[in-house]
# Entry
Amino acid sequence: MIIDNDMKILITGGCGFIGSNIAIFLKNKFNKLTVHSLDNLSRNSSKINLIRLKNNKIKNFKINISDKKQINLLEKYDFVIDCCAEAAVEASKYESERVFFTNLVGTFNILEKVKKDKSKIIFLSTSRVYSIKNILAKAKQINKKNYNFKINENFSKKSPISLYGFTKLSSEKLIQEYSYSDNIKYIINRFGVVSGPWQFGKQDQGFVSLWLWRFINKKKLKYIGFEGLGNQVRDVIHVKDVCDLILEQIKNFKKINNQIFNVGGGLNNAISLKELTKKAKEITGYNIDIGKIKKTSNYDIPYFVTDNKKIYSFYKWRVKRNLDNIIKDTFEVLIKYKKLFKKHEL
Ligand SMILES: NC(=O)c1ccc[n+]([C@@H]2O[C@H](COP(=O)([O-])OP(=O)(O)OC[C@H]3O[C@@H](n4cnc5c(N)ncnc54)[C@H](O)[C@@H]3O)[C@@H](O)[C@H]2O)c1
# Structure
């Protein structure tokens, strides 16, 4: 399917890191497309992204996703790309109610809208739907210098998975129920760590941009958990690779739907915090002392690397941007818009 210029797309969380990148990417590629965002601007950084959306003629509706009445007043859309969530795993421990309402009730409200409009949905899920205990057990067997273990869609989802993981896994199940009862067509992407330009990293989410920002500003950083050694590993995917994939999924939606995919940077884009420190030193030319907190949160995992076999087999899609591309592109935006980022301190 070629993208139809009359198509209307709603991006929830459109003023967030991933949502704003997808919205602007689609609008720049197909300027007649209607791209709208639903975002309550609850993150400081979303106000900056709102300016970016405005500059690209993308309208945002300032609505709380847990407000069903407001959502139902919106016009009809062909596609909903659901990027709205509180995405920080630790936040779900301390702000459980907000996370529950945003991440799970929010999905319910969006599904009711999708059902009413007979639209299609692409849902951004997470690698955190997988069992914490099983990942811990697997990580024990992994040689730290050789990240050779990849997690596919069939890996255990046994509890505990964190409240965040629960809201996302439950959202997936809800989507499948609506698909079964109301014939809603969906794609669910379980993303690993996404990074790149316009990410406002915080201690518990967005570690690549957080690292670079702290180095640029010579501010303190800490390795947290797992004895404070900085050995925890994640694979990282460039947000531009995410945008390319979403476009492929829209184009091929009629042929490929009702599927769940793991999507991540893969083995080649796997990095430990310690290794990231080295790269941050190189690109910024600065050095900072890194402290340590030995204690590990019971929500944290020491290792995650995505198995992209399924997504490749369906779309012949693979990651194009490597870690150096991710770090360079993120760094350049942080430097170029330093004043803006400072204003809404990461
Ligand atoms: N960033 C990652 O590494 C990553 C990895 C896996 C999955 N995801 C998923 O991708 C999606 C986007 O993540 P992100 O990194 O862009 O997060 P983000 O925090 O940058 O964006 C989320 C946006 O949602 C908005 N929002 C929050 N609560 C809301 C509410 N109640 N009503 C309306 N808007 C609200 C925020 O203002 C923000 O603009 C999320 O669903 C997340 O779970 C992200």
